[in-house]
């Protein structure tokens, strides 16, 4: 076909030429009590995550990571014994994909925009993004809270789930692009639309396509055709109102703003009308 | 490392690590030419998106000295000198070759089976019935002939004042190999780190794919390749590079150059709105989008894709209509960026003024001496 009937081996762009973690710890980290400042400039994502783990094992609980430019999986490999202190991690400025994937109890604060896959399959803890987030935010999230100050991209909260007392929460200050809450199976999503003009509808179409659990609270307006077939719109009841009240106040604690003014607007509740929307297709 | 034994099929990719392609494009809307540092650093920043099986650059404003001539970058597989001889005889017959040379390479950079790369600056030499054929058409027909009829010779690019440098390796290695940073300047740079989509990693299959001065870099997989290819064959475009993205380059040439459609319309042909969405449009739009979908159904690009299309004076970023692949745009002053990841833009431009993500199917059009790229801002997040 091309003159070469050969393949050549896959080259590992994650593990080639990694700097040893001891070396990185001595050159990249400055500690002050339980606080550590890490310079991530130019590090590969494996180096940075190794370094984070090492820093934590050395006893730091307050981490500030500077010069982050697209390193992935920050916060992922920090599983600690249950009795250990939870970490407080500040990220400056631009974390890569899958920020806080599988996050287990820690708090991550991002001073900048996040990319795709924030809180992927997150278990517990908190992610607070002072900016916007990309696609598939809160994908498969199963616990904890995510607060995004501005907008989010496509397929936010796709397949978010809940089990008994573990109910994940996502609060978005702006609007979302299409497929919000796709295949959502549990959890709570709050979409505040704070940056929309009066009467401007939300951006997302196909909201809640395939949704079969959980709830989306939506502030601002929406045309009917923006909804997926599997969701119905209802006014919030007292329990919903208590939820909305609580998380709007938390949002304002993080990012400022007047909660009463936000709560004054009309909220709508979107819930699935069927528990098994595709039961007919896949049942055998 | 070469492994020669157990691969039964060339289309079988072993140990497939699921990376995604990385795309990056930068343009100076004032037309000022600059070096490759930003493009190289940005794609290096997204190294995890590549696989070392392909990378390439397209540069515009590349050969100001020869800007009136078509610059043919031709590679000879296996350094096949017999093919070179055939090609050069062909070129002499159909073109005036004003200058030609081997594309300089750095011998210290070791890459997989590098071919011989040569560039020719040519002007059409038409005769007989071909005298009335427009130059562009003439060049395309000759490029198609070379690609499809001459074994081991492939035309990488054929535009005026523009060129494509690509091959097997990480993009920064390709840049070092062709010494892009030291030797070249341009006002548009697009770059791609490639994971081969169902195709072998080989020099011709790397992105950018190009025809005349149109280049395409692509992240994703065009599952409508067969339908698109057959449609393009009816218009005398023949796909020879064994990779899905090729159809996009030819489709862009057909629609934009030959048929003169603006990119805003072409975007809606590649990534048309759903019938469901058309139903809620104004009457005029219903008529327009219905007509487009019906006329150009075989050019609908199905499957996930993000592309950066470039030609003289324009760089365009576009995703599929449900954005299964990412894109982010950024701007600072007259520099406009398109990238798979926002962090890569910030990494090369710390004082970025604007960053935005358009919805699926909505093109970001960067034009020389305009602010057209800001048009997508209102619809974006």
UniProtKB/TrEMBL annotation, chain A:
This is GXGXG motif protein. It comes from Sporotomaculum syntrophicum. Transmembrane segments: none annotated. It comes from the Bacteria. InterPro entries: Archaeal_gltB (IPR035710), Glu_synth_asu_C (IPR002489), Glu_synth_asu_C_sf (IPR036485), Glu_synth_lsu_3 (IPR012061). PANTHER family: TUNGSTEN FORMYLMETHANOFURAN DEHYDROGENASE, SUBUNIT C (FWDC) (PTHR39673), TUNGSTEN-CONTAINING FORMYLMETHANOFURAN DEHYDROGENASE 2 SUBUNIT C (PTHR39673:SF5). GO terms for molecular function: oxidoreductase activity. Pfam families: GXGXG. Signal peptide: none annotated. SUPFAM superfamilies: Alpha subunit of glutamate synthase, C-terminal domain. Residues 64-219 form the Glutamate synthase alpha subunit C-terminal domain.
Automatic annotation (TrEMBL), chain B:
PROSITE patterns: GATASE_TYPE_2. CDD domains: GlxB. Its EC number is 1.4.1.13. The active site is at residue 21. Residues 21-369 form the Glutamine amidotransferase type-2 domain. One of its GO terms (molecular function) is glutamate synthase (NADPH) activity. This is Glutamate synthase (NADPH) large chain. Keywords: Oxidoreductase. It holds the Pfam family GATase_2.
